[in-house]
Amino acid sequence: MLKNAKKILVAGGSGFLGKAVVARLETLYPQIKVTVPRSRDCDLRVWENTYRAVQGMDGVLHLAGKVGGIGLNRDKPGELFYDNLMMGANLIEACRRAGVPKLLIAGTVCCYPKFSPVPFKEENLWEGYPEETNAPYGIAKKALMVQAQAYRQQYGMNAIFLLPVNLYGPGDNIDLHTSHVIPALIRKISETKQRKLPSVTVWGDGSPTREFLYVEDAAEGLLLAMEKYNSPEPINLGSGQEISIKDLIQKIATFMKFQGKIEWDKSQPNGQPRRCLDISKAEKQFGFRARTSFDEGLRKTIEWYERTHETVASR
After folding, report:
1. Which CATH number is 91's domain given?
2. CB 3.0 to 4.6 Å from 84: which of 1, 32, 140, 314, for a disulfide?
3. pLDDT digit string (tens) for 17-33?
4. Number of other CB atoms surrounding residue 81 within 10 Å
5. Which residues are catalytically annotated?
6. Is 78 domain-assigned?
7. Is residue 303 domain-resident?
């Protein structure tokens, strides 16, 4: 599909994942004019903006969203539900009315039930309620999958839905209130070292597990799906590797040469007990397998943080 495309819109193209997708699009498909609507000029919660943005597009990738870690999900569940639902619903309807040939929607691992069997299989999506702290966000995204499937059934719309795990890599959000676990831990350890404090405090008890996908691998997977996948069933996008939060922070501490104590604040939530995807369908359907090992990606992320943010802080 992308080989013959002339105009592609990347909603959320100025975000963490979006920048990686846009860069890869421009490198692999130089004939494509990539359009990135900015939220200050094109609020996708407003129908008129969304409909105008998709006119004349050969394809649309919906990567836009309001997203964050446990803290943001706990503090702003209403905003996360409304904003993500309205952006996606408007975009799907706008693409239908404008006759856009193909739409890719990036969902989230938060769509899965809290106690889904591990590894998570796409067939498990409806076997329970999501983890409470991120349920509003996950259900809003899940509703977009239902809308895409309904539009395919009624209108023949070619809309596909992917379920990425937590992403990480250079350029990630480091705001402690809104960031995900890897950039938050890197920042906490860095600032603890700079202040010469004896310990760093981490939320929960360290027992939950997570799976992580390097952002450039995620961009590759999305574009492979955009090019080759045309079916209604959702597809997991991940690395297939599971690590506990306890092991994760110990690994980050080792890489950052932090020798202080790690203290656990058990008054704060753990989030979902385990997360690890069955990634077999992505490889079978469109040939995706993550290339970047976790240690390699983590080192690159730490090096980026130390090169950019520690230099700025020292000034």
Report:
1. 3.40.50.720
2. 140
3. 999 999 999 999 999 99
4. 19
5. 137
6. yes
7. no
